[in-house]
Task: structure prediction
Amino acid sequence: MLDYTHLSALAAVIRTGSFERAAQHLNVTPSAISQRIKLLEERLGTVLVIRGQPCTATEVGQRLCQHVEQVALLENSLRGSFPGLQTESRPVTLRVAVNADSLATWLIPAMAKVEGFLFDLVLDNEDHSPEWLRRGEVAAAVTARGTPIQGCDCHSLGALRYVATASPQYHDRWFADGFSEPAAAYAPCLIFKQNDRLHVEWMRQVLGGNVHPPLHQLPSSQACLDAALAGIGWGMNPERLVIDHLRAGRLVTLRPDQPLDIPLFWQQSRIVSPVLDHLTQAVVHGARTTLVPV
Result:
């Protein structure tokens, strides 16, 4: 049997990124954390933590951290059924993969309706978030995949509507004669990260082909919006995020009659599904009152 005191030390090191912060989290000394990790590595005969700034997990270490988090979630669910287990305890950490635009528009209010969790959010494109579930690195994810991932339950949320926007000055400079393939090939475009394909899908929908514009890469939804307002480039912004700017004339749409709707789904690990019932209900309700019906 594995020692859960040692496993908790491992999870704390990986979650906080250092032995010192893990010690503070567990109210022990850094040397105690180091000793527990050493004993666990000796017991298993393999390295579990890559020492650095921050500390990271090896593949085996990551699997053990996932196990510890799943056990914590399941134990938390038992407290509601057994009054004798109602003791003072720390909130359980729940790791969720989510796309940045959902986080910027509708997910936070849903999270606020659920207590008892510490959220550890992993930001990734909705097309790539299923990989986090497949690897077991998250308990749930907002994805663009409507087919249940093996071992997961899937719930339809609705579609996040995007509009192609730019500042009026940018529009007049690059698209004075309208949004066309020749102009789009030279006009700088704003994307969230390298695997962001929204602009490609929209241009294929609008122009009927593949266009490869110069790209600005910005690591947040708000940064992409601010860059569009500043006239640095055009980009695909969630309609809810830009609606006030459009009404005020600070932004214009490149093709008002052609939004891009991206269907989203909530997928969660079936192992901890009973624990996440309240969160799932809050996420589904919040999304369906905010997103475009599919």
Observations:
- The CA atoms of residues 54 and 77 lie 31 Å apart.
- The chain has a mean pLDDT of 90.
- Residues 59-78 form the longest helix (20 residues).
